[in-house]
Write a structure and sequence with these properties.
alpha/beta, globular, disordered N terminus
Length: 188
């Protein structure tokens, strides 16, 4: 999509996600890969691109609270407030998975890893998508994630349906993951 204005590139992303595509985009620390969490085919494609088991957990990222409903609104008030006070931001929280949610994004013990991002390019992307999507680093399993659009293209070639150009944020490592119930850091 070289040569198109940024806003036109941004508006192409929802079409690719709706068409079972895998997209790449800048996040707070690295480029991410994402797809529709409700589409099993797209989730399996994403896992195959990363060369990791499809059963391994994935993160859901959104641009605002409403995109990850109804889960957080069902939490006890103290946990609900903990999420609200940390989002948007770089913390990913493990929250109880809500009924009728696809099983592939869940992690051990029926939890979902969710984050409301503060990174401006990612926020604009999720606003254009108008939903949360599965997100994971743009890398093969056990390799360093890409930090630029060109790196994504060199690593994955035409296997990625859409790459949103832009800069990653200032974080130097992947975002922290915490268990909401215990406050325990799962990934630092």
């Amino acid at each position: 999509m070289k040569g198109y204005p940024a806003h036109r590139q941004l508006h192409a992303a929802p079409r690719w996600v709706a068409a079972r595509g895998v997209i790449a985009y800048p996040t707070q620390a690295v480029f991410g890969l994402g797809c529709d969490p409700g589409n099993g085919y797209a989730v399996k494609r994403l896992a195959a691109l990363k060369r990791r088991p499809a059963a391994r957990s994935l993160i859901l990222i959104a641009s605002d609270w409403s995109q990850i409903q109804p889960g957080p609104d069902r939490l006890p008030p103290a946990q609900h407030e903990k999420l609200r006070s940390s989002w948007p931001g770089p913390t990913t929280w493990l929250i109880p998975a809500w009924q009728h949610y696809p099983h592939w994004p869940t992690v051990q013990h029926g939890s979902l890893a969710v984050r409301v991002t503060a990174h401006p390019p990612a926020r604009r992307l999720w606003q254009a998508l108008d939903s949360a999507i599965v997100s994971t680093g743009a890398n093969r399993s056990r390799r360093r994630p890409a930090r630029a659009a060109l790196e994504v293209r060199l690593r994955f070639g035409c296997q990625i349906d859409f790459v949103l150009p832009g800069r990653v944020g200032t974080l130097t490592r992947s975002t922290e993951i915490r268990d909401l119930a215990s406050g325990t850091v799962v990934r630092n």
